[in-house]
Amino acid sequence: MRDFIASQNSERLRQRLASGLREREPAAFAKLARSLIDMALVTGIISRLYRAVVLSRAESPSAAYIVVTLTIGAGFLLAMASIHLSRFPLREWLWRAPVFAAAVGAAEMLVSAVLIALAREPLGTGAAHFNDWPMMAVRTIGWRIVVISLFGLLLAAVVKWVRYLLLRREHSAWSAGTVRSGMPGEDFVERRRR
């Protein structure tokens, strides 16, 4: 019975939250956001090109420049992960976040290989070469998996906490051992214990 009530509550909450949104996103964007591979390709390509542009334009970067560019890049990466994960239930995030991260890293490394072939992939103060690529791939994919997985766990915890707070506030009368009496002047009636 508890699972039935919980599913009814979560469905009511979803409908109530969705009723406030009148703007519908384009079908193409919704399809892109649900596709793990397509979303990872777009994210990986844009992330690697952004990295290449930022690092090649910095002659002598200041601390503020580094912080701002890293924040923009990380914000884009985590926003794309959020857009993708938000299309699925929380229980799927456990495997979707690391797989999405690995796919983003793989897409980045494909773009990196093309940039190395064009001699446009920065590495330190010079250009990267094909013998640098395997170590760059391990580092990039590893960092993407760690960062996006931890972000997915944090985001899931926040989503779960907000859902809990909303449902608790709306259905505070449904706490264990009480039920609304429905009579004016009486808020709660204790259930009889046998």
Written overview of the protein:
The chain is mainly alpha-helical and 194 residues long. It has one domain. The chain is 71% helix and 5% strand. The strands form two sheets. A two-stranded antiparallel sheet has the order 1-2. A two-stranded antiparallel ribbon has the order 3-4. A hairpin with a 7-residue loop joins strand 3 and strand 4. The radius of gyration is 24 Å and the shape is elongated.
E-strand count: 4
End-to-end separation in angstroms reads 19 Å
Question: How many separate domains?
Answer: 1
What can be said about the biggest beta sheet? 2 strands, antiparallel
User: Spans with pLDDT under 50 lasting ≥5 residues?
Assistant: none
Helices and strands, in order, run as HHHHHEEHEE
Helix content: over 70%
| Integer-rounded radius of gyration | 24 Å
Strand order of the largest sheet: 1-2
Number of continuous helical runs:
6
Q: What is the strand content?
A: 5-15%
User: What's the shape?
Assistant: elongated
Tell me, rounded to a whole number, the average pLDDT: 83
**Could you say which structural class the secondary elements and strand pairing correspond to?**
mainly alpha
List the helices and strands and how they pair.
Elements: H1 2-19, H2 27-34, H3 36-57, H4 63-85, H5 90-117, E1 122-123, E2 126-127, H6 133-170, E3 178-180, E4 188-190
Antiparallel strand pairs: 1-2, 3-4
Helix pairs in contact: 3-4, 3-5, 4-6, 5-6
Keywords:
mainly alpha, 6 helices, about 190 residues, two-stranded antiparallel ribbon, about 5% strand
